[in-house]
């Protein structure tokens, strides 16, 4: 793989993917960044179809899901889920696939992409655990880092830890 | 917020001859506090479920309250076997977003430290793999050599485990007198020692029986399950971020990227031994061609990143460490996501273990080289 002209090749791959999405997914809004990364914003209803399209794109398929991250936009009342995609083994294509959902705990949900990229399994569980976003169609959606009895989703901006503070150990505690 | 002890009910689909076995969280071969719930039929594994989170310290939430320079020491605590590469991942990501130009000499020093760290980390992997498979001597041998790297790091940073050597804008300080000589002596010593390890271990009939054909992972599976680093390359995918998406000064170096073909425990070991040699090669080139100049540029004390987000990744000894940073223009990140390779690799543990024997789980965990500090963050 020639790494010297990576930015230029990334730009070419980004433009090709942008054209592909413009013709196949009309609801997607795309932005090509100066470094060649393609931002794709889709409504939740078009997420799985877009993901399948990207994962099978020619000639550079976005077959490698690097990262799934939640972002809580408290002021807008939205939670964004960002999938960072790369092509493998040629890293020329880079896409961040974004989908937004309501912040309200009972409404927060997006379709799961585990059927497209199996590695989404743990990372989507992490987003569910820390943000409370439900992934519809996830085979095993449970908390992963926190205990099952934990209440709340700590990476939400309005999370307050309601556990009682640790009682300070004083000299009296050591009296016989 | 109840503090109840949770008992999970026995699954209703448990077969007549099946048994649930908890491996960990304080099992010597789980490399920290990892619990693996195994469903076994005799000695054979029919289900594997890793249970993580025992070490969760809300790393990402803490970052949201700390300023950008303050986070550097925090990153040391994620992957505590390779803090240098974690710092490198973080400073690379922030410098890219802030547009900080780092002096060339600092870039080269970062490469030297990251590669020394890779050697130290792979030595711990080698030692613990031996330990897990029942050979105690590799651990003693490996830690003897790792001590040299620890001494070098102590000389430049003052610490032996959590260095905070990389800073935003460069590195903390230049090489101390005597560092280059000691490093060259280490480079001279290591090839013989690596040969010794290989003779001791890689050609050992017991090790071959325990590792060949165990935990097979095809190239397609490796890509689909997000494998990276030596685990990906052992499956035959020719990809290394240092070469294919270079950061720091890696574009200036020529080095081998060792590949496997079967994706089993043995091939992962071969890849890591190859990487030890490649790292020695890179350090040699870096010491020879080290440019002069400053090692740290002035970065504003109150650093503010422009509004926006970016994902950047580096090659740690375990694989792709990625950082997704969202900035709202303030002095601390609005959101910082740490993509830990060990966490992603654990998901594929079930694929590697199912159908094999209980003893192979230990070999698989060791060959994935997971660090629980990074898994749980």
How would you describe this protein?
The complex is a heterodimer of chains A (176) and B (377). With 176 residues, chain A is α/β, with parallel strands linked by helices. Chain A has a single domain (6-155), classed as NADH:ubiquinone oxidoreductase Nqo5 subunit (Beta Polymerase, domain 2, 2-Layer Sandwich). Chain A contains three helices and seven strands. In chain A, the strands form two sheets. Chain A has a five-stranded mixed β-sheet, covered by helices on one side. In chain A, strands 6-7 form a two-stranded parallel ribbon. In chain A, strand 4 and strand 5 form a beta hairpin. Chain A is elongated and about 75 Å long. Chain B is α+β, with helices and mostly antiparallel strands. Chain B has a single domain, classed as Cytochrome-c3 Hydrogenase, chain B (Orthogonal Bundle). Chain B has 15 helices and eight strands. Chain B has a three-stranded antiparallel β-sheet with strand order 1-2-3. A three-stranded antiparallel β-sheet of chain B has the order 6-7-8. In chain B, a hairpin with a 7-residue loop joins strand 7 and strand 8. The interface between A and B is large, with 42 and 42 residues.
Question: What string gives the helices and strands of chain A in order?
Answer: HEEHEEEEHE
What is the oligomer described by this structure?
Answer: heterodimer
Number of strands of chain B: 8
Could you give the order of strands across the largest sheet of chain A? 1-2-5-4-3
CATH class of chain B: Mainly Alpha
Uncertain segments of chain A: none
CATH fold category name of chain A: Beta Polymerase, domain 2
Major beta-sheet overview of chain B: 3 strands, antiparallel
The CATH architecture of chain B is Orthogonal Bundle
> CATH homologous superfamily of chain A?
NADH:ubiquinone oxidoreductase Nqo5 subunit
Report the radius of gyration of chain A as a whole number of Å.
20 Å
Helical content of chain A, roughly? 10-25%
Indicate the overall shape of chain A: elongated
Largest interface: A-B, 42 and 42 residues
Which geometry of chain B do the CA atoms define?
globular
CATH class of chain A: Alpha Beta
């Amino acid at each position: 793989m020639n790494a010297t002209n990576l930015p230029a090749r990334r730009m070419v791959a980004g433009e090709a993917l942008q054209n592909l999405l413009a013709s196949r997914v009309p609801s997607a809004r795309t932005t090509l960044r100066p470094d060649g990364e393609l931002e794709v914003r889709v409504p939740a209803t078009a997420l799985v179809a877009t993901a399948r399209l990207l994962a099978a794109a020619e000639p550079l398929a976005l077959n490698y899901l690097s990262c799934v991250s939640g972002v809580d936009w408290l002021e807008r009342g939205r939670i964004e889920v960002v999938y960072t995609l790369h092509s493998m083994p040629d890293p020329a294509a880079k896409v961040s696939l974004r989908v937004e959902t309501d912040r309200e705990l009972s409404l927060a949900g997006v379709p799961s992409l585990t059927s497209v990229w199996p590695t989404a399994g743990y990372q989507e569980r992490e987003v569910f655990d820390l943000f409370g976003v439900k992934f519809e169609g996830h085979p095993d959606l449970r908390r992963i880092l926190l205990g099952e009895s934990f209440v709340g989703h700590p990476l939400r901006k309005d999370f307050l830890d309601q556990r009682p503070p640790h009682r300070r150990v004083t000299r009296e505690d050591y009296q016989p | 917020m109840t503090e109840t002890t949770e008992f999970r009910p026995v699954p209703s689909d448990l077969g007549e001859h099946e048994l649930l076995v908890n491996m960990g969280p304080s099992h010597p071969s789980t490399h920290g506090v990892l619990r693996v719930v195994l469903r076994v039929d005799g000695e054979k594994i029919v289900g594997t479920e890793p249970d993580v989170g025992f070490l969760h310290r809300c790393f990402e939430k803490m970052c949201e309250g700390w300023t950008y320079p303050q986070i550097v020491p925090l990153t040391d605590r994620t992957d505590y076997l390779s803090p240098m590469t974690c710092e490198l991942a973080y400073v690379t990501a922030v410098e890219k977003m802030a547009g900080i130009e780092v002096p060339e000499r600092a870039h080269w020093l970062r490469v030297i430290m990251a590669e020394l760290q890779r050697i130290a980390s792979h030595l711990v992997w080698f030692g613990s793999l031996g330990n897990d498979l029942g050979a105690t001597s590799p651990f003693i041998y490996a830690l003897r050599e790792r001590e040299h790297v620890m001494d070098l790091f102590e000389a430049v940073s003052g610490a032996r485990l959590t260095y905070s050597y990389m800073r935003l804008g460069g590195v903390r300080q230049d090489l101390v007198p005597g560092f280059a000589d000691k490093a060259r002596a280490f480079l001279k010593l290591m090839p013989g020692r690596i040969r010794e390890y290989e003779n001791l271990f890689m050609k050992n009939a017991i090790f071959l029986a325990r590792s060949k054909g165990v935990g097979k992972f095809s190239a397609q599976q490796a890509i689909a399950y997000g494998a990276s680093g030596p685990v990906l390359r052992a499956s035959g995918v020719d990809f290394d971020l240092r070469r294919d998406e270079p950061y720091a000064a890696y574009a200036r170096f020529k080095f081998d990227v060792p590949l496997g073909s079967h994706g089993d425990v043995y091939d992962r070991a071969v890849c890591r031994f190859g990487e030890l040699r490649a790292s020695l090669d890179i350090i040699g080139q870096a010491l020879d061609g080290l440019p002069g100049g400053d090692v740290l540029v002035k970065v504003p004390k109150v650093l503010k990143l422009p509004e926006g987000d970016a994902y950047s990744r580096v090659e740690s000894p375990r694989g792709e460490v990625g950082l997704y940073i969202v900035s709202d223009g303030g002095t601390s990140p609005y959101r910082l996501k740490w993509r830990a390779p060990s966490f992603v690799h654990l998901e594929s543990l079930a694929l590697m273990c199912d159908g094999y024997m209980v003893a192979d789980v230990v070999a698989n965990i060791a060959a994935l080289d997971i660090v629980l500090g990074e898994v749980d963050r």
